[in-house]
């Protein structure tokens, strides 16, 4: 992950405004935050954006603003980062884990439906690795059950389904701007986008100690502090101008991976739906004996990652919420491996990664034949 190259690219364009913000002591709120919120809403093609401190808060506050309270169940996919389920518990709710499609590792309408009970109040669809599930089907399945729908778009800045942007399907979509994300701050940051102005105001209030709009001294709800810092907003505005080019760079890298690694024995690529506009936060493949494969890659100088080593319901903190094995999420977690992917990755380096992967797969194939 070359977060430094993205930072270097934007730094000259923000140096002066960061200095001005520091000398003017503009550290929280103000014009920089308002500008970024407007720019983010407009990029997402959704009317309202509320900046918050991080992606976990974005989810937690959206759930609270939607009324999640003690004992309310919210369905989440078991293949995601723990924050999706964490937010449900932080809001006072109970996560219900849904299995995923083995081809995409995304929750489907069927796996979602299997997790719904009479206590379920809502569903969080996760746009894992940069790809949304079938959101037309998800939206109608969730609405038909009278539930709310939140999109966890922490890995999906600019993703679309069938031409519609993340955030257009759910009551709200939640983003993380953690430095390693497709759009990342110089620290932690997040945002919620929504088409519902009242919901946006409730989230804004909860993120600001439950204050009444326009009345600093009146606290209507028990809220929290979850501000988007002014300095982070300046960084995010500058990086947002480059996001389309960076997303294209990611797509080019993945096109090469897919061209050379599709239908290669010993490695399985995840399926991409033609209606999904994938923004490739991560390029995840499935390989048996993943730990050894990762170690072999590293021996050849290729750094890989694992997202995520266990399905969330297998994590000790979430075992108390798990009531059944979820076969596909568990099998997926044992096999996933993320190959290098970032906008400044040169095509020569991509070629080298592909060469090493092919070499290791050939070695594995030869060993298997020798044993067989
Ligand atoms: C799918 C998903 N949801 C939520 C989060 C939480 O975001 P943050 O780390 O900004 O709290 C992340 C980020 O790691 C994520 O990948």
Write the layout of secondary structure elements.
Elements: H1 3-23, H2 31-44, E1 48-52, H3 55-65, E2 73-77, H4 83-90, E3 94-98, H5 109-115, E4 120-126, H6 135-144, E5 148-152, E6 160-161, E7 164-165, E8 172-176, E9 190-194, H7 197-206, E10 211-212, E11 215-219, H8 230-240, H9 243-261, E12 268-269, E13 276-277, E14 283-286, H10 290-299, H11 327-335, E15 336-339, H12 347-371
Parallel strand pairs: 2-3, 2-4, 4-5, 5-8
Antiparallel strand pairs: 1-9, 6-7, 6-13, 8-9, 10-11, 12-14, 14-15
Helix pairs in contact: 1-8, 2-8, 3-4, 3-7, 9-12
Bound molecules: pyridoxal-5'-phosphate.
Number of self-contained structural domains: 2
Question: Rounded to an integer, what's the Rg over CA atoms?
Answer: 21 Å
Order of helices and strands: HHEHEHEHEHEEEEEHEEHHEEEHHEH
**For the terminal residues, how far apart are their CA atoms?**
38 Å
CATH architecture of the largest domain: 3-Layer(aba) Sandwich
**Number of DSSP strands?**
15
The share of residues in extended strands comes to: 15-25%
Global morphology? globular
* Spatial order of strands in the largest sheet: 1-9-8-5-4-2-3
Hetero ligands:
pyridoxal-5'-phosphate
Mean pLDDT: 96
Percent helix, as a range, is: 40-55%
Main sheet: strands, sense, barrel? 7 strands, mixed
């Amino acid at each position: 992950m070359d977060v430094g190259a993205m930072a270097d690219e934007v730094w000259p364009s923000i140096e002066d405004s960061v200095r001005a913000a520091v000398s003017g002591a503009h550290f929280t709120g103000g014009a920089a935050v308002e500008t970024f919120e407007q720019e983010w809403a407009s990029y997402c093609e959704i009317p309202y954006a509320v900046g918050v401190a991080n992606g976990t808060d974005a989810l937690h506050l959206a759930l609270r603003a939607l009324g999640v309270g003690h004992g309310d169940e919210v369905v989440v996919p078991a293949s995601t980062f723990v924050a999706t389920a964490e937010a449900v518990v932080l809001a006072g709710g109970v996560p219900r884990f849904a299995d995923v499609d083995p081809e995409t590792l995304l929750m489907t309408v069927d796996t979602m439906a299997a997790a719904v009970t009479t206590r379920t109040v809502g569903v969080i669809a996760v746009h894992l690795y940069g790809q949304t599930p079938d959101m037309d089907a998800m939206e109608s399945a969730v609405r038909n059950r009278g539930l709310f729908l939140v999109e966890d778009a922490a890995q999906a800045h600019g993703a679309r389904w069938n031409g519609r942007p993340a955030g257009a399907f759910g009551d709200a979509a939640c983003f993380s701007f953690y430095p390693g994300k497709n759009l990342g701050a110089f620290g932690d940051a997040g945002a919620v986008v929504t088409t519902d102005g009242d919901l946006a105001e409730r989230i804004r209030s909860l993120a600001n100690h439950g204050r009444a709009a326009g009345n600093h001294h009146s606290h209507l709800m028990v809220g929290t502090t979850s501000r988007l810092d002014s300095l982070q907003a300046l960084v995010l505005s500058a990086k947002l101008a480059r996001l389309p080019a960076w997303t294209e760079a990611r797509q080019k890298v993945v096109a090469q991976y897919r061209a050379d690694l599709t239908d290669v024995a010993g490695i399985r690529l995840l399926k991409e739906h033609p209606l999904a506009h994938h923004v490739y936060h991560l390029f995840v493949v499935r390989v048996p004996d993943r730990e050894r494969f990762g170690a072999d890659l590293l021996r050849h100088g290729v750094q890989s990652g694992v997202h995520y080593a266990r399905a969330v319901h297998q994590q000790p903190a979430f075992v108390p919420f798990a009531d059944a094995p979820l076969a596909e999420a568990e099998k997926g977690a044992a096999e996933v491996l993320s190959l290098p992917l970032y906008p400044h990755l040169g095509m020569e380096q991509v070629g080298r990664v592909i060469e090493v992967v092919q070499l290791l797969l050939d070695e594995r194939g030869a060993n298997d034949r020798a044993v067989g």
